[in-house]
Each structure stands twice: as C-alpha cells, then as structure tokens.
Amino acid sequence: MKDDGLFQAEYETKLNKVYLHLVVDKEYQEDYQMPMLRQNQIAGVLAAEGCFVEGKSRYTYEVGGFSSMKAMHEKTAMKEGTIRDVVSGLLAVTESLQEYLLNPNCLLLEPEYIFYRDGQWYFCYFPEMELDLGKSFHQLTEYFVRTLDYGDTEGIFLAYELHKATLQEHYDLRQIMEDYEKHELERRAAEGEGTGRGQELGNVFYLMDDGGREAEKEDDYMEYRGAPTVDVLREESGWWGALKTSAKKIRGRRWGSWDDLILESDKTTGREWF
Questions:
Q1: What domain range is 202 assigned to?
Q2: In a domain, 260, yes or no
Q3: Three-state SS at 195
Q4: Residue 253: inside a domain, yes or no?
C-alpha cells in the first residue's frame, strides 16, 4: 500500500480483475458525484465506485488491461506525441466533467494515477480530493521533462513551453497548445520549403534576418523560433545545448526542479525565449 499523505493507494487482484483502491481515513458520505459517475460513462474517466470499509472511505477503479503512465515510462522515454495526447485527453475530460456538473479539480494528475489503454488516456476522478488543477498540471510537466527523450527536438520544445507557460497563476492550456501548434507549423514550413527567406545550399542553410544579414547553419544547428523581429539560428553549443544539458541534469535529479532549467538556459542567452 502506498501512502500519499492525503490518501492511501493499493492494488487488488481477483482472478482476471485488477482494482486500484484509494482510501481516505474518514467516514464515507456520498453526494451527487458518485451517482453521476455511475450513470454516465464519461470518455477518458475511469469508472469508479465508493463505499465505507472498516471505518474508512474507499474508492475503487478497475484497471485491468490498463498501464499507468509511471509504469510505461520507467524505462521508455517520453516523446512529444505522448505529451500531446495526454494534454488533448485532459482538455477533453475537463470539458466533459463540467457538462455533468463534476469538478475537474478532483482529477488526480500524478503519473501513477493516469492510465493508458487502446490508444486513449484515462484519469481518476477522486471526489475526496479538490486540488488546484492548474498547479497539478504544472507539476505533471516536471514529470514530462524528467522522462523526456532528449533526442526528440519537438518534445523538448513542447515540455519547455508547457512548463514555462504554466508558471503563471492563471493560464489557458488550450491557448498554450494552439500557440504551440501554430509555431510548429511555421517552423516545419520554413524547414521544408527552403524557399522565400530561406535558401538551402547543399548542407548549409541560410536565413535572412530583417536587416538583410545572412545566418549560416550547418546540419547540426537548430533554428530558434519565436524571436519577435528576426529569424535567429543558434548553434547547438549555444542556448540549445544549454537547454539539453540542463534538462539532462534534471532527468538525473541533480537539480531540484524544472525551474533550474529555465534559469540556466536563459542565463546562456540573456533573454527569455518563450
């Protein structure tokens, strides 16, 4: 049994059934939330049952055939596509919950309580907990970076933007993703066309900035996207190298938080990029 401080979590196996029990040391009192969950199959939300057992409240979720995010990425690195799918699933679930008058703040966003099966992510709705969903997701972005595939350029950009944007007290996750999608389309178009302001010459790529100057890039250089008035190319030894190096430090848990990565990469360039 795992004790998270606010509740205890334990698994139970019965023949071909596997259950996750979340237990709270208080008397079980059922309101409209559990009947609402029972009577409506909400996509992306695990079916739940609540009861009073041995003087405690127990909520049960059937998870046979599911894999938790934590178990999936103990040995397998997180990629950009996975982060996209999790965010997309979370946005859809929060909208559905509100349609049924259920509180999205009751979702558990710890990796061990987010599950995957048949191409879809599922979340635990836990009526006993009303956490700040915005803060919970911000903490989840720290998990993203600790498990990232650091050869996945898009994954690093996405995790960085999500974490930095969610540092704000009030943020719009859907807008963050829409902005990211827009930037990605622009970046891929610039990389793919090799025309207009960009001109590909063999293994060297030139971009003209707003002042008419040329920026030269070898194959292993990365294009910086998002500069307000100029297309800038940074060598891997510059801000991009610092970003990857800092991220690796966090993954190795030599630093305490993802905030350290932001500070390190920003110190390299002397400006904020996102």
A1: 153-269
A2: yes
A3: coil
A4: yes
Number of domains in the chain: 1
Q: How far apart, in whole angstroms, are the C-alpha atoms of residue 258 and residue 262?
A: 7
Residue that is written with structure tokens 């071909």 in the block: 16
DSSP of 237-265:
TTHHHHHHHHHHHHHTTSSS-THHHHHHH
Spatial separation of the C-alpha atoms in residues 274 and 160, rounded to whole Å: 8
User: How far is residue 154's CA from residue 58's CA, in Å, rounded to a whole number?
Assistant: 41
pLDDT at 199: 37
In angstroms, rounded to a whole number, what is the distance separating the alpha carbons of residues 233 and 259?
24
Residue with tokens 């932001």: 262
Q: Is residue 239 part of a domain?
A: yes
C-alpha pair distances (Å), 146 with each of 43, 86, 168, 244 = 28, 16, 21, 12
The set of residues, in sequence order, having a beta carbon less than 8 Å from that of 31 and lying 6+ positions away, is 127
Global pTM reads 0.71
Alpha carbon of residue 214 to chain centroid: 36
Grouped pLDDT means (10 residues each) for the chain, 274 residues:
80 93 94 95 96 95 97 95 97 97 96 97 95 95 94 92 91 93 85 52 32 37 32 36 51 40 39 29
For the chain, the distance separating the N- and C-terminal CA atoms, rounded to the nearest angstrom, is 41
Sign of CA dihedral 36, 117, 155, 260: positive
The reply to whether 55 falls in a domain is no
Task: Pick the closest to residue 253 from 147, 154, 111 (CA basis).
Answer: 147
Run of H or E including 187? helix 173-193
